[in-house]
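Please, structure for the following, as tokens.
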Amino acid sequence: MTQAETRMDWMRQAVLLAAQCLVRLPPDQPVQTRAPHAQDHTVWKSLSMTRPAGTLAEWLLASIMAAERHPDAAAAFSILAEDERLILPTPASFAQIAAAGLEASFDDALQVALGDSPLHAAGLIETIDPAGSARPLTQQGMRLHGGHASVMFGAKIPTHPLDLEPCPNAILSPRAALAASRLMCQSGAVWIRATSRRLARQFALDVAGTLSCDAAFLRARDTDAPDLPTHDALNVIDLFDVSSVPAMPPRGGAGFAVIAPMRLEHPGFAAVDAPALDSRDLATLWATLYLPEADRSALALRFHLTVSELRAAQREAEVLMSIRQPANGVPTPPPDATVIAAAILKDGARRMGPSVTKVESDVTLDDLVCTPSMRAQLDDAVNWHRHGQRVWSQMGLSRDSADARGLSLLFSGPPGGGKTFAARCLANELELNLYRIDLSQVVSKYIGETEKALSRVFDEAEAGHGILFFDEADAIFGKRSEVKDAHDRYANIEVGFLLQRMETFDGVMILATNLRSNLDPAFLRRIRFVVDFPMPSRAERRTLWDRNLPSKDWRATGLDLEDLADRFRLSGGNIRNAAVAAAHLAAAQNSVLGHDHLARALVRELEKSGLPRGAKDLGPFADHLEGPA
């Protein structure tokens, strides 16, 4: 093992220890930015004694390579960054580890990470910000530019821009993979077409499995001819990020594979289509887990993973278990089904990228104030998702409907009617992440870029770890129009792409709109459940006031919720806003919430909604407007 590899392994241990220290901090103890691990000084001292020699620049390289080479280190770096999407070291996290374990100055290490190193001078480091250029420089991820490094500091570290996957222990499509491997051996290469990158990668792994070797995935660029590394693995060139086919390397030797979207073709290559995964394939995959049969079956119904995704979830689960395990010398137990499921959700959220925002929530359908018919529709949607696998795999439905397996819902109604709240409730009921699509990150003025961004979102969500939530859906699911110029033509192309993708999407998606009439009618045919969210009735308004106001100990005597519900015909969102505003007014006076606080909050909310707010409309609350502020 070279000196650089020794440093990388040491850094891997250091970042895992740093993540454990951060997790074990008491909730009420503030994090010390410059010395966040001081309470574990003895443990760090023990680790420091095994530290090899190296400059701060060499240790910076070691931290970046540890994240690249070791998934558990990448997961630990995301814990330090407090962002599950950022699986890279940041200047701040590197400086903290340097201060705790390298006996270096925090400021010196931060300066090196921010630019004062040979790595930066050679232009080899680039910064990554999953939040969209909103982070300070000290909180942005660091990686080697282009995914590779030169031989530096006397260290010979693998420098190719590739992702190495071990030989799979389960081949999901053995017959098709064997045919593809024969084609590759005969012609020197095989072209794999697929509707998504995850399916293409899975099939390439199957091909590698038939050859009993690892798979090395190399992402190509538009202009560069891929330079295949030399090692004992199946080289797989990934073309999913390019707009046209780049020059291909010469064929010969053991051969190589190319994975590409359906839109890219090459006349000189023998092409095969990556098969979709069915319930039998998923059963083969989940059978490799050590869990009991009942747990494996339950997880297989919830998540439709590939081999790579399951491996990543297992590694994530092992990291979670090691972090939770107290330092008492007792071996860490293997993750159970609950920890595996949590790891799948966390790993899936990281892969979604900057185009979505994960919505955190702890509400359930029992917290939703709605009509019996609305609740019945939502319960039917839950049962649709939970029992879909049985319907498609066991009940003998015709193949004509094989493309329409996903669950799609449309929530329509006026603003504040509870559409977003219902989406949060449904996600918790199904035990899935909820991803709100960030239209600012998805919609692009450049031709084809919107479709690419949406395609990545749909592809990742098909693993089954989350619900896609399109708020204000009419912005991108709007009606197609008569083509009068190029803008109309490309807008219609975007709508057409969404229609096709909805047709083949196997996951769960929710569209929410205030203006149902603005949606293209073709979308409605593809929607499974259409749930209307009307303005709440008097009884529902009474319940909403009671749920949103502070507890009874913090309410003044005499508050008449019946009168509130009867007098003010507000939506659920307006009621929530008024209750929260009144609570803040009461807190500012260090008093219980009374009529004067509610009166002021109600006037503001009525004004925003354009509703009458005269003395007659306010009734007895009008007498409290001149009271103390």
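Residues 538-624 form a domain with the Helicase, Ruva Protein; domain 3 fold (CATH 1.10.8). The mean pLDDT is 81.
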